[in-house]
Model the fold of this input.
Amino acid sequence: MKTSLNETQTIEQYLAGKLSPWNRMLFASRLKINPGLRNDVELQKKTYGLVKIYHRKKLREELEMLHEHLFNHPEKKDFRKGILGIFGKD
Done:
């Protein structure tokens, strides 16, 4: 089923809890009678989950690079010593 931009935006608002009570009830009714719409909602939920996983992975990579730079480069020796001193690991 091809989903229109408006439908995608409505699904997004529904999943985010941003629909008015009336529109939420109307959308929930549509979900009960339209298997294609239910499928679209499930696909959008899965897409959000994948985006979240990807974002976490990229953030973890960025933090690892920052850690590498701050703790292993000779010019950051004083920073490393100060941080380790705070945590009693000189």
